[in-house]
Request: fold
Amino acid sequence: MKTILHVDLNNFYASVECMYDPSIRGLPVAVCGDIELRHGIVLAKNYIAKAAGVKTGYTIADAKRACPGLVCVLPHMDRYMRFSAMAKGIYSDYTDKIESFGIDECWLDMGGTDKGVQTADEIRKRIRKELGVTASVGVSYNKIFAKMGSDYKKPDATTEITEENYKDLLWRLPLSDMMFVGRATEKKLRLYGMETIGDLASADPRLLERLLGKNGLLLHRFANGRDNSEVSALNEEPEIKSIGNSTTSPRDIITDDDVRVTFMALCESVAARLRRHKMKCYTVAIDERNTELFAFTRQKHLVSPVCTADEIFAAAMELHRFNRRPGEKLRSLGVRASSLCREEGLQLTFYDDEKKQKKEAAERAADEINSRFGRKSVVHGTTMIDRELSSFLPSDDRTVSPDRFEAYL
DNA sequence: TCTGGGGTCCTAGGACCC
DNA sequence: TCTGGGGTCCTAGGACCC
Reply:
């Protein structure tokens, strides 16, 4: 029988910020993006709610009034990546089968060892000593139970889920503690009188399938500890399927220029990330949400793959114009590139004329400058029409990919 | 009761073809 | 020309994760 560990770095973002600024240690910390600061909405509201004992939904200004000790911190992705990589450095002393799950969680395949708990405790101790943050670890014979073990007790704890104790430990927990049971699934299951993970485990699989499709059968298996999925190694991370950015604007997006400015800023980021991964896309999708919170998405297939902001922008604007509704006020826009392919080995097509190639070369040159002198050193003129709308910083990739892993150590 | 943003996967329905 | 059935592909939307 296999032994699998799931390590969860506790309260990760805030903990890392405290490492760099000891003066905020022990204070309630809200990690805020500049976007959220601009909007005056707090990202990590629960910190504030906990600290001040107030309702959530406050603006930063409100929050500061309600919670005088509140410190707001801009996100430092580079710092989180470094700590994430350092944690993986520790794991790699024990196994080379490490699978990331977001920036602060990993599964470790320890083979057939019977020293799972002992190793878990040792890893926790090292993380505390070498990184200065705490971790909770789940030890079990499959990935799902290992993950639920790391959620079972926090912070800084080890929980072992065995074939003998899983019914006692997990079955009495509410449905929402089960992985892949979100709000919608919970609601459906409750209609049939299910309240706990145990109820799910002993339900009729055929009923679950009728209710939830494929997912229903999967959940039934998981709740009973039947999960034989493998822990994949760090160097076999799945291929990226899509790259996208979206933003909620500081004010309503009304005019054509508003849309152009916002889309161009998003397309610049998406295109630069595509190029960094040495990829191109065949499909461009846009997301729009209006002030009534009505959302829709539309996508468009291209005849030849692209990786420039200009080309993605053209597709995005075409989709927008085709689907726009006169007078509609938009609140949020998004652009996503999918149907990706590697740029190497791509044949030039009829559509790759000289102008297109020059454009691509120009954007690659801009990448170079932006990496040397900072993001947004070179931008498209379109984004300058309205600095307020284009000043946001779209998020980057946030997982530590194998080829960047060493760089952060 | 949905914070905002970045992803993946599944599914229902429509278009199209034979 | 219509009907029906089967298969495939695409799209939009929803659900889930962090």
Q: What stands out?
A: Chain A has four domains: 4-11+79-167, 13-77, 175-223, 242-408. Residues 101-105, 179-185, 215, 295-299, 301, 398 of chain A lie near DNA strand C (CB under 10 Å from a C1'). Chain A is about 45% helix and 20% strand. The two ends of chain A are 33 Å apart (CA to CA).
